[in-house]
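>> received
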Amino acid sequence: MPSISPRKRTLIACVPLVVLVALLALDISIFGADSILGASQVSLLVAAGVCIALSMWLYRTPWKSFEKAISGRIGDVATAILILFLIGAISGTWSMSGVVPAFICYGMKIISPKVFLLTACLLCAIVSVMTGSSWTTIATVGVALIGIGRAEGFSDAMTAGAIISGAYFGDKISPLSDTTVLASSINRVGLFDHIHYMYLTTVPSFVITLAIFTVLGLTKGGTPAVPMEVYSSTLSGTFHITPWLFIVPALTIFLIWKKRPALIVLSLSVVAAAAAAIILQPEIVRQIGERVTSGPSARIFFAGTVETIYNSVSLDTGVPEVNQLISSRGMLGMLNTVYLIICAMCFGAAMQGSGMIDDLSRILRPLTRSRGGLVGATVATGTALNGIVSDQYLAVILTSNMYRDTYERTGYEGRLLSRSVEDSATVTSPLFPWSSCGMTQATILSVSTLAYAPFCFFNIISPLMSFAMGCIGWKIYRKTDG
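>> returned
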């Protein structure tokens, strides 16, 4: 390997990032929200190509190393891709079965517009704590809340911010959350020790978030394009709205609480919603089926059910706003997100396989000499890695590995590292448009990442709170302290 100074290696490692940021900025300026339909994917692949070319030319890194890294990274997200397809299926079956319309109808009667944002955030937090999954919370309760918020006059971006803030609060502190388990185990900290220590930064961040959404709810609620009564009457006239529909989400939450595998839970949720559609909304299933086939009723019902699961489906209720509310993407609607995830994984694998991630970490090492600097560097790294490798799990792992020796050498407890990692790598993941979480939430909620990100107050406040606590030193001890 040619001898290259550490400083030059750090500068070289910045090149792919500069290329990526420049290309993504150009994409957004030209294509806007449609940049995730193809332009962003091209930018990620070009940046990955630049990284590989530099590494093979300057460091003599063999091509086989990149092949192995890319195949490994894509293999790591195979389950996530299947989950995405199932979430798309849930989008279709929950809408056409009447589950989402039922949530909207009952929600408009129960939730006052003045406290809607506060209620949405709290509800998603509770469900996410119980299930341990931000993705599932957003794909189920979140989709329904988007509809309620739109009917009550709130922008989709503001509602999405409340949903994501609550969902990631629960994902962060739930003992059922895979990121929580990962952060504690990789840093050799007891799970509940890790969770209890996170309360010191997470609870203040969430309280501030709830206060902001309370103020926004009292001051920013707008006038809906269509009166709430029109939403309610149109949905009730189109679907058979009954409390029996809530069996489907109740079953889903129960299975998650029982710690059943995500693929099994989501699959059973799709089956239950499809059955509910056939039993409670037979005319809608027939209407969808007759668009693609004719013949015996069994054939039409089968076609309508399958179409609801895999294809984008919409109904004409006579009210355009309601049509948009109940339209669904199906499994096919997730293809662009899957495409983007695969390209993002290629870029992350190239950066990791070339060693450029380690080279970039040198930029922050001088900051680790003080307590506040150490926590700040950890938080900055966890946040930046979400944008670089586009995956929160890898961001958790890499940040922990980068700083574990430093924390041990300086005598700080492992739970400080695990908390700092969660305060950054876990919660900032949905703020990057090209990250797996950012892409997924934007697709599920039909709100672009750049639109909802300013309203994800919990996700923005958490890393800042972690840094502030690091500077203050509250409840931060060295192993030698009494």
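>> The first helix runs from residue 6 to 31.
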